[in-house]
TrEMBL record, chain A:
GO terms for biological process: cytochrome complex assembly. It is a multi-pass membrane protein. GO terms for cellular component: membrane. This is Respiratory nitrite reductase specific cytochrome c biogenesis protein NrfK /respiratory nitrite reductase specific cytochrome c biogenesis protein NrfL. Keywords: Cytochrome c-type biogenesis, Membrane, Transmembrane, Transmembrane helix.
Automatic annotation (TrEMBL), chain B:
The keyword tRNA processing does not apply. Residues 69-249 form the Cytochrome c assembly protein domain. GO terms for molecular function: heme binding. The chain crosses the membrane at residues 6-27, 34-54, 66-82, 89-107, 127-148, 169-188, 203-220, 227-246. The lineage of its organism: Bacteria, Pseudomonadati, Bacteroidota, Bacteroidia, Bacteroidales. This is Cytochrome C assembly protein. It comes from Dysgonomonas macrotermitis. It is a multi-pass membrane protein. One of its GO terms (biological process) is cytochrome complex assembly. Keywords: Cytochrome c-type biogenesis, Membrane, Transmembrane, Transmembrane helix.
Length: 419, 261
């Protein structure tokens, strides 16, 4: 496939040599995996990742003195970078097809586990290719920065942005900490659980003043009264209660919402009244018309809660109309955050609205799913990621590069050999 | 304003959009299709603004409301892209996709109240999805062009203009794809605690991005022309796995990107 006759390993190197070297990297990675086990990211945590990162940058700067050699041209050139991307692509496909494990089963001895492919991100082959990609991309950037041309702004945005992103997220992965904290209403907590279930104490404490949940109105569905399964089985049909659209249809029954109460309590005569209190449950009065017989009747339907029984509207001897559990619209924790010696911040924490405290981010995580809005605790995810600002710099540069790509397309004509 | 007034805005907007798509092909007077496209988008945008005021909150909480934005942004960004690149099919595609999403809201009114779970209630949702739809369109077009070029190569007459078209369209598609991924990353940091968690959908997005990078870099050189062109259908298949296939992959059970039950 080469345009000139030359033997393998004779400069200039092209795809054959590049692909062989990437395959070599992967083989070395597998050998390391088999002999020393997976990459231990804890070892790479601060300060070692700073040392490794500085070492890489120093290497790139020194290596630049050799930029006119054929080796440098190849190392920073298209065939090698395409081969490295291809290597990441193939390892990525392995990651996409083989189920990835959070925790390795120590007794698993299948070939995928031994080669590290059930945890690709801490597999030596992946880490080595990732590392060499950073060096190759870095040396290309250095070469192009030395003969800087402002007209190549799109190139700089894309390549430098991607490099910073890969550099900061890769090395930063070792410093990332994610814990879950459970806090009861009215209490203050500083202990968290790690992924492995260990209990740790953090320098940050959270006081939970209140946990509030808003729900969507529930849906109605027909179930088999014996099995409890929603009908038609396997592909159940639902009618969303919405006072703006009171009419609907399930199977051969026409439904009309006559009255909907979100916080209802059952009266002694099996009707419902609005009472906003813990344990109240959504209830709906529906007019049900059988379209085949034309007969209609009204009935209350209620989903029940930890404090109240459910109510079903019987349709036939085997079918009944029931209400589903209400889905959360939003849930919010009113919290105060303390460090060891002072009150730092207070917030109404919601999904999609985390709170930043120093290098920590605090997220609304969960609640007691069974109790729903009556949950008396709220859980928070605490994430520590000191490399985040660098990641955002990479994201912004890369995004600017993408906009440039869309705007200018490929104005340059296809080139010959270099780059 | 409420959904009850939707038809009064949607139908004129759809008529304008479809008119723009058709006149784009029928006549050389570009001002006609341009005016129609802008008019349709303004009418549709007016409804979104009205609904925003009427409900006293941004219309971003239900699937139906989200679809309003798809229509609006597909029309708007599609039109800007068309004005820049001057490919008429871009205008027609944007008009058609905007119409499709506007029509779903007409014919399936019950989805107006299909609820969004809290994690999806974010300003990032609409732009994240819209730019992906646009990138799929560009990459889809590149596959067709790649096959045409492959058959021309087979006959020994490569079309240089087609090469330029493929390059441009892949650049535009890749730009949209990366913007979608980066917006997704920023959103994920807010919603899930980390910008990249190697969730199966993210893994496949990484694979797809890598495949397009292989194309973009290999076509800089003149070697292996057929292989380079074949990368486009291959990358598009990977893109489809990312978009749809992930829901069915055994390795992806438990993905946080799967929202249907």
């Amino acid at each position: 496939m080469n345009s000139t006759k030359r033997s393998v390993w004779q400069f200039p190197w092209r795809y054959t040599e590049s692909i062989l070297i990437v395959i070599g990297l992967v083989i070395v990675g597998f050998a390391l995996q088999l002999s020393v086990g997976k990459v231990d990211f804890v070892q790479l945590a601060y300060p070692l990742n700073i040392v490794v990162g500085s070492g890489m940058i120093l290497f790139l700067l020194l290596f630049a003195f050799a930029r006119n050699t054929q080796f440098y041209q190849w190392f920073s050139g298209v065939p090698f970078s395409v081969s490295l991307i291809g290597g990441l692509l193939v390892l990525g496909i392995a990651m996409g097809l083989i189920p990835q494990m959070q925790k390795l089963d120590p007794h698993a001895h299948d070939i995928w586990t031994l080669l590290g492919l059930t945890q690709v991100t801490s597999c030596w082959a992946f880490v080595l290719v990732y590392f060499v990609t950073l060096l190759s991309l870095g040396s290309l950037i250095v070469r192009r920065l030395i003969r800087f041309n402002w007209r190549d702004y799109a190139f700089y945005f894309n390549h430098i942005g991607l490099w910073i992103l890969l550099f900061a997220s890769g090395l930063g992965a070792a410093d990332l900490r994610r814990y879950v904290m459970y806090v009861y209403e009215g209490e203050t907590e500083w202990r968290v659980y790690s992924d492995h279930g260990d209990i740790l104490e953090l320098p940050i404490a959270i006081q939970l003043n209140d946990f509030v949940m808003e729900e969507y109105p529930p849906k109605l569905t027909i179930i088999d009264r014996e099995s409890g399964k929603a009908q038609p089985e396997g592909k159940p049909d639902y009618f969303q209660i919405d006072e703006r659209y009171p009419e609907g249809r399930l199977d051969k029954w026409e439904l009309r919402v006559e009255k909907y109460i979100h916080q209802a309590v059952r009266n002694s005569d099996s009707t419902y009244t609005e009472v906003p209190m813990p344990g109240a449950t959504p209830a709906v009065l529906v007019k049900i018309t059988n379209t085949e017989t034309g007969k209609s009747f009204s009935h209350w339907v209620c989903g029940g809660s930890i404090a109240q029984l459910y109510m079903m509207a019987p349709l036939t001897e085997t079918l009944g109309l029931v209400m589903t559990q209400a889905e959360p619209k939003r849930f919010m924790s009113d919290i105060v955050v303390y460090t060891e010696d002072e009150r730092v911040d207070s917030a109404e924490l919601e999904v999609n609205k985390p709170l930043k405290v120093g290098d920590w981010m605090i997220y609304q995580y969960g609640y007691d799913n069974i109790a729903g809005k009556a949950s008396n605790y709220s859980s928070f995810e605490m994430v520590y990621d000191p490399w985040l600002p660098a990641v955002y710099v990479g994201i912004i540069l890369f995004a600017m590069g993408s906009v440039c790509l869309m705007w200018s397309g490929n104005k340059k004509k296809r080139k010959g050999d270099t780059e | 304003m409420t959904w009850n007034e939707y038809l009064w805005f949607a139908i004129p907007a759809i008529v304008c959009w479809l008119g723009a798509g058709v006149t784009g092909y029928l006549t050389d007077k570009k001002w006609i299709s341009n005016t129609l496209m802008i008019l349709g988008t303004v009418i549709f945008g007016a409804f979104i603004v009205g609904l925003w005021f009427g409900q006293q909150r941004p219309p971003l909480r239900t699937i139906g409301e989200t679809r309003l934005w798809y229509s609006f942004f597909l029309a708007l960004i599609g039109f800007i892209t068309y004005r820049h690149w001057k490919y008429t099919w871009m205008l027609a595609f944007a008009a058609l996709m905007a119409t499709v999403f506007a029509c779903i809201n007409i014919f399936k009114p019950e989805i107006h109240s299909t609820n969004l779970m809290p994690a999806l209630q974010s300003y990032w949702f609409v732009p994240h999805v819209t730019v992906y739809i646009l990138s799929y369109a560009m990459f889809g077009a590149s596959v067709i062009a790649a096959f045409i070029q492959l058959s021309k190569l087979g006959k020994g007459k490569e079309d240089e203009n087609l090469n330029i078209f493929i390059d441009n369209i892949v650049y535009v598609g890749f730009g949209f794809l990366i913007l979608g991924m980066l917006m997704g990353a920023v959103w994920a940091k807010d919603a899930w605690g980390h910008y990249w968690s190697w969730d199966p959908k993210e893994t496949w997005a990484f694979i797809t991005g890598a495949a397009y990078l292989v194309f973009i870099h290999m076509r800089l050189q003149q070697y292996h022309k057929r292989f380079v062109l074949w990368m486009l259908p291959i990358a598009f298949i990977l893109l489809m796995i990312t978009w749809i296939g992930v829901n069915y992959l055994p390795a992806a059970q438990g993905s946080i990107h799967v929202y249907s039950n």
